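In response to the reviewer comment on reproducibility (Comment 2.3), we provide here a single inverse folding case reported in full, input and output, so that an independent group could reproduce the run without further information from us. The structure tokens appear first.
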């Protein structure tokens, strides 16, 4: 269960007390503010605060007074130009603060993006809840035989059941020992900061994560990609929906030029030019490695 009835009541109370402001407001993001959107079995993503909108990007690019806009069409065209030519600074003028509940092993992958401000729930001061990520059966997969960091075919039948039982049993047993170690019922009890070392990597943690739009889009380009690990990709997919409503012009440009576009090396671009001239370009005469040639073919074939 991602949130409790008490937490939902708190969210309802926050949404029931709007405040007047002179600052730029994104109506799309206002609809999402404070709401918790479930991810995985116990996780969620919710917007705590944001700054700026599409017009703020244009205002920064033009360094102008007021909204900084000439027309909606001009704003959209400017944002697409900025995205197309990798002018990133204006996108840094918008910021987003998220409250995320996620498994520890996902958090450790997420934190590799070192361009955000993070404050995580402390297991030194507080006791973690008995909540663990247990994959759905269709997400249990064997190691890929062609990719050292990816998944292969899904486990089935008795093998899938065996793995699920191990995951559930180990998580429950580790938490039982965690509770036993910190208990002060007739014992000294181990310090929480030490007892937490025994908890499994699939236990849930929470954090506030604040990032500017430029670095957020970089995060989404990598983590919402089909090659990203499923458990972090579903969080990125949920965040994409929020960003699309927050800064629709910027997100559409991001979809076109980053998510849907492709960067070509000088060698790959030369191959494409040769193809356009009618020359037969093959793996043997392309001048690239076998892997580069294969990747170019994937881009061209879609």
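Designed residues, in position order:
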């Amino acid at each position: 269960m991602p949130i409790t009835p008490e937490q939902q009541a708190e969210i309802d109370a926050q949404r029931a007390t709007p405040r007047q402001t002179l600052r730029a407001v994104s109506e799309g993001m206002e609809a999402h503010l404070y709401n918790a959107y479930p991810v995985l079995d116990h996780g969620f993503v919710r917007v705590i605060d944001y700054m700026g909108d599409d017009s703020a990007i244009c205002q920064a690019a033009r360094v102008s007074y007021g909204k900084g806009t000439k027309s909606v069409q001009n704003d959209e065209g400017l944002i697409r130009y900025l995205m197309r030519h990798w002018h990133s600074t204006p996108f840094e003028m918008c910021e987003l603060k998220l409250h995320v509940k996620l498994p520890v092993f996902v958090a450790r992958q997420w934190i590799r993006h070192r361009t955000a401000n993070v404050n995580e729930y402390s297991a030194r001061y507080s006791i973690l809840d008995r909540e663990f990520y247990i994959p759905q059966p269709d997400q249990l997969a064997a190691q890929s035989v062609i990719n050292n960091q990816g998944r292969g075919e899904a486990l089935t039948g008795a093998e899938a059941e065996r793995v699920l039982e191990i995951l559930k049993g180990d998580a429950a047993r580790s938490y039982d020992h965690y509770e036993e170690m910190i208990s002060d019922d007739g014992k000294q009890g181990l310090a929480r900061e030490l007892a937490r070392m025994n908890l499994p990597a699939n236990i849930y943690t929470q954090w506030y994560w604040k990032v500017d739009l430029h670095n957020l889009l970089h995060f989404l380009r990598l983590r919402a990609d089909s090659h990203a690990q499923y458990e972090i990709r579903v969080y990125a997919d949920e965040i994409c929906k929020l960003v699309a409503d927050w800064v629709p012009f910027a997100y559409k440009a991001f979809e076109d030029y980053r998510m849907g576009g492709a960067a070509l090396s000088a060698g790959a671009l030369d191959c494409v030019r040769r193809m356009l001239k009618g020359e037969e370009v093959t793996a043997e005469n392309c001048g690239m490695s076998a892997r580069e040639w294969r990747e170019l073919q994937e881009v061209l074939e879609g």
